Amino acid sequence: MRPRLRWLYPLLIALVLAAVTFAYAAANTVPPSSAGDGSNAISGYTVSNVHYVLDSTNPAVISAVEFTLSGSNPAQTVKVQLTASGAWYTCTLSGSTYSCNVGGGVSVYDASILRVVAAQ
To answer: Which residue from 3, 30, 45, 96 has the highest number of Cβ atoms inside 10 Å of its Cβ?
Structure first.
């Protein structure tokens, strides 16, 4: 009869180890957190009413750019670029018009593009 009970001892040891492991894992606490995954279409903006503000002392220099953006939500971050490899200028919203101060100015001759990047 003893040979038949030989398998009982390893089974009992496995059950005890499983119970201890479960009890240890149940004692762990994890702070609450949030996570998620999703997607949505990017609708984009339409730039219109573009106005280049020329410097008052030197009209050959652009001192600012003003325009409106149409979209479902107002953009929070807007920047413009006036030359292909030039600096990016930050724009601010005043009413419905975005105004971008070009700092020291960009020569009218050198301005080759108006690249607008806008994001919510």
So the answer is: 45
